[in-house]
Amino acid sequence: MTTILIIDDHAAFRVQARAILVAHGFSVIGEAVDGTSGLEAARTLRPDVVLLDIGLPDVDGFEVARELAVTGPPPLVVLTSSREASEYGPRLTSSQVLGFIPKDELSGAAIRALVRPA
Amino acid sequence: MPRTTTTFTRVRVLLLITAGALGLGMLVGNAQLGPLDLGTVLEVLVGWSFVACGIFLWARRPANRLGPLMTTVGMLWLLGRTMTLVLIPVVYTAGLWLTDLWAAGFALFLLSFPTGRLTSRTDRAIVGIFLFVTVPLEFLWLLFLVPENGLNVLGIAANESAAHVIDTIQRVMISVGSVLLVIALGRRWLRSSGPVRRQMAPVLAGAVAILLQSVSWILFSSGTSLEALDDLIFLAQIAIPIAVLSVMLRSRMARGGIADLVVELGQTPTPARLRDALSNALGDPSLQVAYWAPIQDRFVAATGEPMDLPDEGTGQAVTMLERNGVPETAIIHDAILLEEPGLVASVASAMRLAVENDRLTAEVEAQLTEVRASRARIVAAGDAERQRIERDLHDGAQQRLVALTLALRLARTRLGDDADPSVKLSLEQASDEAKAALSELRELARGIHPQILTEAGLHAAIESLAVRTPATVSVDMDPDARFAPAVEAIAYFVVSESLANIAKYAEAGAVVVRAGWQDGVLTVEVADDGRGGADPHAGTGLRGLLDRVSAVDGTLEVVSPPGGGTRIVARIPTAAPTHTADRMTARVAT
Predict the structure, then answer these.
(1) ipTM of this model?
(2) Residue A52: which H helix or E strand, with range?
(3) Interface of B with A (CB under 8 A)
(4) Is residue B178 located within the same domain as residue B322?
(5) Is the pTM above the cut of 0.90?
(6) In chain A, helix, strand, coil percent, each to 5?
(7) In this complex, do A89 and B464 lie within 8 Å of one another by their Cβ atoms?
């Protein structure tokens, strides 16, 4: 079963995301509320996938993704946000992550499409 | 005080009687020598003219030295000439001396017009020449002089040729002095303004008379005597005191000076020109202007150097221009001017007007600066507020709608495929509504303040605008350049408003957005190949941009000929950009 760590500062989103991912057969092994605790959790929990919010209160998601990429073995990172991809422009397109899913588009299928591309 | 006034009056009456008697004595004395000629009568009239006009001026303008000076000149003239008629050696010799001493007094009178004081070194030097000729040289000449009547009491070393040499030296020096005097007065006349020039006419006539006088002396020493020339000189010398008196009493000179002063003040003169204008108006070349410096708590010159106001009894006085009881400007002038309070008051009024004018101008300038600053603050505060509202929307309503959308989708998933179709439909509709609401909210938030601008800077924000514009937009700017938030916001809104207009009206195929910083100005340009004809004054979009750009002292240029595309250029003064690369380095370092 694919393990997932959710890093997001909004509790309501974490609750709904966990429920949806669990319902779609993922194992949510942890949640973190900011970048620092998220990096710590990624190190200890070693998830397959990190669902990472871009707008975090301490460091932004791009920065966290950069850090995650150098922790070995790096998890697959899926960025998410309640804003659209176009609002991040080149920062998103140039970031070394698996992909981006708008928060309201989150589903098991969307994650799976990124994790196991056809 | 009454006693002093009476004493003065008595002195003046006595002088007048003396002058009358001396003149009569001259006439009688000459009449005994032979029939009276016109020249003698004119000579007497010269003396009387000086004494009478001098005493009259003295009475009317007691503080002005010109009155006593004119009286003295007239008395020297009469006394010297009358005494040479008395055949007593001491009296005769003294008479000879006084007759010539008159020339020095006359030169002093001309050069010290209208205050009765010598002000420049040149003037003092010229009077010095006259005094040198008429005091030490005259004494020397008298030592050697052998008069025909043998009455020279000083002639202890009688030597005719020595006396002749000294006499020649005297005549040459007097001539040189006269020429210098004419030059000095001529220069003063040239430097003066119109009204003052007219008032100087009698003095210039006097200068010409003294020049003619020396010509006459030279002719006399070479054996020629031109009676007509002498008579002409006498006539001029009679007229000069009368003309001077009329000028002085009418104070036209002062008024003319004030007219000039008002004109000068109206042109916001430099401090040096203001001083000169005041000096001209008051006829006081020694005049100085001091300004109150509240910070230093003392008076300073226009150059900023501290200045001490003169004490009483130094011959200088201060006219203070105050504002609400606080001294602002001090005019330091000759104390003699206090005797003409009307004149000083007029000058002070003119000056006060100018100072008030300057103060009002400065006040408006200060208010304008304050308004500019407050406008910039309002725009900055507006930007900050928009940013805060955007964040509130993002963290509040937007997150709740996201959670709601996900919850609805989860409910739909959990319901399974064999559930009541109407319930499934309701859930799907609710989910779609939530998504639509979220999308609208997102659009609204972006319009209020684009998060990407704060997070990633102008280039990224413009790129994200470009993606959403239904035309080919190429962006040309340094991707890493970051400016002050207010500047980035204004530049961003210039581009977003322009692109929105292009999408709505321009029917453009290609758009170029350029932004670059040079010499303290960020220039943002949006150019399209559409149909042009945009009117910056129609609609609120461009007008709002103009207001925003103006708030930071920038300019907005709209070039939009019909059919020729539209080019919008904003120029925003701002500090050189920092670069994201620098900021990252900084972050790593901390």
Answers:
(1) 0.90
(2) strand A49-53
(3) 394-395, 398-403, 405-407, 409-410, 413-414, 434-435, 438, 442, 446, 450-452, 455-456, 459-461, 463-464, 467-468, 479
(4) no
(5) no
(6) 45, 20, 35
(7) yes
